[in-house]
Amino acid sequence: MSQLAIEGGNPVFTQPAPLPAWPPIYQQTGEKLLQIYNSHRWSFYGSEELAFNEEFAAYTGAAYCSMMANGTVTLELALLALGVGPGDEVIVPAHTWLATGEAVVYTGATPVIVDIEPDTLCMDPEKFEQAITPKTKAVIPVHLFGSMADLDRILAIAAKHNIKVIEDCAHSHGGEWRNRHTGTWGDIGSFSFQESKLIASGEGGACITNDEILAEKLGRLSHIGYQIGSKQGQKGTPPPMGLICRNYRVTEFQAAILSGQLAHLKEDTIMRERNAEYLRKRIDALPGIKVQARGKHATRQSYYIFSVIVDIDRLKQGTTRSDIALALQAEGISRIGGGWGRPMYHQNLWSVPEDMYRIESNANAEEIVCNRLLVCQLQWLMLPEKETAMVADAFEKVMTHYYCD
Ligand SMILES: *Cc1c(COP(=O)(O)O)cnc(C)c1O
Fold it and tell me: pLDDT tens-digit profile of 235-292?
């Protein structure tokens, strides 16, 4: 067995891996940005915003798309468009970015937290059903990292109980469930275009839907009441009384950046999926470790993060996930770590008082997210073949060392 780099052996990567910079930049977009700058038209249902709405709707197969300031307010407005408010409950998974839960709090409703599946790390449909009460108005499954929530079961349960479904697709640009893009299965799909995401404009987000009435509401809600496509100062029809609207608009610059990236999303998704599946094959063959399972009926899996679950019970006594992370880092895999490290309601930034949310189930999330999960940034799925094989070699070297028969 070759000596681990952390113990003084030679690392698998003797040179740093050639990770691409993220987000990507394209010269054509740079020129476009300058044109927009020179045009003096920077916002307010401009041509770039309207064009991106159409492009993203076409890409996902949704009838409508509405861009917004970020992927947190998309969740908030999706909830408002569906009529969620004070007194209502919204079911969310225990393991997600805190925005999923906080958006519910913004509306005055109560987030109800349920456990995740141990393999996909996404909402457990059974736990979802168990948490339903007469107050449950909506559910937000999150298609997390490199997997998807079980849409078949979640949609069936939601339909049975008359519950609205918002898919949090902040990690799922390009992902397809049964050959149809995520976000088009529920009532509304919510996307983030924050700097780290799969298409990224610094800040940004979008809601997609097939429902014309919801689309109209989402447009108004995010544009301080203006009708979709209106020009500044144009009167048009006012929003319905009681629909309190926000200014969550984006600028033309963001829309142009996203259009440029969207043109590459398909080929990039295919490349990342191919590399992830290669790594999955090699890593799943190792003892004491398992790659996060694909979505059960994912026909195209987008990978925002490559994540693995370490079976610490089968490793040398006392081994922690952080030992594995440090050993992998020493072999040259930078930026591998515990991710958020905790379920949503224990993340550092979570400031929602305990009487404003409820935890229904969380056993898997507590054990896996706190002790067993390791995550790797998406650039690690964008390496050439040779370096991708070296990533697998590093896992092989480290796990063989720490495994205890
Ligand atoms: C990034 C993210 C969001 C929203 O992100 P913004 O930073 O507000 O654009 C929502 N849900 C999940 C799961 C996310 O990772």
Answer: 788 999 999 999 999 999 999 999 999 999 999 999 999 999 999 999 999 999 999 9
pLDDT range class, residue 186, cuts 50, 70, 90: very high
Quote the longest CA-to-CA distance of the chain.
74
For residue 203, the ligand 1 atom closest to its alpha carbon is 9
Closest ligand 1 atom to residue 75 Cα is 10
> Residue 227 has what DSSP assignment?
P
For 209, 228, 281, 363, the CA distances from 39, given in Å and listed in that order, are 31, 22, 51, 55
Residue 232 has pLDDT above 80, yes or no: no
Residue reference for tokens 């409820």? 358
* Ligand 1 pocket at CB < 6 A: 70-72, 96-97, 99-100, 142, 168, 170-171, 192, 194, 205
The β-bridge partners of 205 are: 68, 192
Question: Mean pLDDT across the chain, nearest whole number?
Answer: 96
The reported pLDDT for the residue numbered 1 is 62
Task: Look at residue 84 and give its three-state secondary structure.
Answer: coil
Ligand 1 center to residue 102 CA distance, Å?
A: 11
CB 382 within 8 A of CB 19: yes
Q: Kindly report whether the peptide bond that precedes residue 239 is cis, defined as omega within 30 degrees of 0.
A: no
Buried b (16+ CB within 10 A) or exposed e, 230-267: beeeeeeeebeeeeebbebbbbbbbbbbbbbbbeebee
CA distance 67 to 193: 10
| DSSP calls for 317-380 | TT--HHHHHHHHHHTT--SEE-TT-S-GGGSTT----GGG-EE---HHIIIIIHHTEEEEEGGG
Residue 142 CA: nearest ligand 1 atom is 13
Q: Residues with Cβ < 8 Å from 308, sequence gap 6 or more?
A: 283, 289, 290, 291, 292, 373, 374, 376, 395
d(CA 19, CA 184): 32
Q: CA–CA separation, 53 vs 51, rounded Å?
A: 5
Q: How far apart are the first and last CA of the chain?
A: 15
How many Å apart are CA 392 and CA 398, to the nearest integer?
A: 10
The residue whose CA has the least distance to atom 9 of ligand 1 is: 71
Q: Which atom of ligand 1 is nearest to the CA of 204?
A: 9
How many residues are given for the chain? Answer: 405
Beta bridge partners of 207: 66, 190
DSSP summary character for residue 189:
E
